[in-house]
C-alpha cells in the first residue's frame, strides 16, 4: 500500500489545507484526499508542486509499505 506523508509535512511547516491549495493551485479536495490517505491517483505535476512547496523529495512525500504476506514484484527482477 502507498502511504502519503503530506499531513506530517504540512504539520512540520504549520500549513493548513487552504495554505497548500493557495500556494500550489491544487484543489482543496485533492489535498484533503492526500492528507487522509484516500487518494487513488495523483498527477505528477501535483506531486512536483507539493515537493517544491514543502522542500522535500517524492520519497519524503510517499512511501510504499508492503502488505503482510506480499510476495509481489519486490521479489522479482525487472527485465531491462
From TrEMBL:
This is HTH cro/C1-type domain-containing protein. InterPro entries: Cro/C1-type_HTH, Lambda_DNA-bd_dom_sf. Residues 6-61 form the HTH cro/C1-type domain. PROSITE patterns: HTH_CROC1.
Amino acid at each position: 500500500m502507498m502511504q502519503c506523508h503530506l499531513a506530517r509535512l504540512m504539520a512540520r511547516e504549520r500549513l493548513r489545507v487552504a495554505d497548500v491549495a493557495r500556494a500550489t493551485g491544487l484543489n482543496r479536495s485533492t489535498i484533503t484526499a492526500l492528507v487522509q490517505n484516500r487518494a487513488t491517483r495523483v498527477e505528477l505535476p501535483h506531486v512536483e508542486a507539493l515537493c517544491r512547496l514543502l522542500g522535500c523529495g517524492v520519497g519524503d512525500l510517499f512511501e510504499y509499505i508492503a502488505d503482510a504476506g506480499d510476495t509481489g514484484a519486490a521479489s522479482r527482477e525487472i527485465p531491462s
